[in-house]
Amino acid sequence: MTKQSPPIAIAIHGGAGTIVREQMSLGLQSEIEQALSDAAQAGYKVLADGGDALDATVEAVKVLENCPHFNAGHGSVLTHDEMVEMDASVMHGRKRDAGAVAGVKYVANPIMLARDVMLHSPHVMLLGEGAQAFAKSLDYQFVEQDYFFTERRYEQLQSMKEKGLFALSESRYPDDKKYGTVGAVALDMDGNLAAATSTGGVTNKKFGRVGDTAIIGAGTFAENSTVAVSTTGMGEYFIRQTVASDVAARMRYLDEPMSVSCDTIIHGELKEMGGEGGLIAMDSQGQHHFSMNSSGMYRAVITPSGDLEVSIYAT
User: Does 3.60.20.30 match the CATH number of domain 9-313?
Assistant: First the structure.
């Protein structure tokens, strides 16, 4: 009898929120779906080669950070001062090690820097200029702000400056009302769970605003015995609800199934507070769950059986 290999799996998201089907051209949808597929496959290759779950999530997120369609890395939204300030975090489930950066301006892939904070520093979170100095100490090649500039993000910023907003009230693009965080969760051959999340934040943000993405327990969480979670949505609400760690706590203390824990929070407590968004979760058997209280979430999964599934809309 052939010995069955341990399960491996990966799930990713590219943001949740109002995604208008009628405004989505076939060409744009195809490009987004291809990017989601590429990201999932990049992470899965690491797993299939025997690599660690954390490295798999970072590889997947890097693909999304490099794509202008997502609000992370290259496609990040602009602050009030027409800059980017990016946040990212990672967590490894074996010992619950974690790393995070916030307010990063010149690093093309903040998710890599978050992993390096975990691996090469005694800290969990580094901020702004300190995070940049840490990156420089590791010989990161910095990029100019022009690298992050896209016409779409500039148009969004000008529109919101005119209205005095930091969240879009009307849409030109099919996902302008989407919260563009990207993330991944994975299970490797050794039974390790990991999660990674990255974002450019919200358009027109001021005062060094930081959302849930950089905060362990709010936007990112992983522990091998229960679940790995990456969230996307209205960050202030996800912080207040400590969404990612709450999923694990409900599974741990109430013995709830993963899907029940996720949906109870996303469709119940979070929604009651006024928080819109969603999450991806994966348990120790490689089973996944997507939960959202919005009309869509860019997402993909490669299951333990090796099947690739890519989706955009809630229904």
Answer: yes
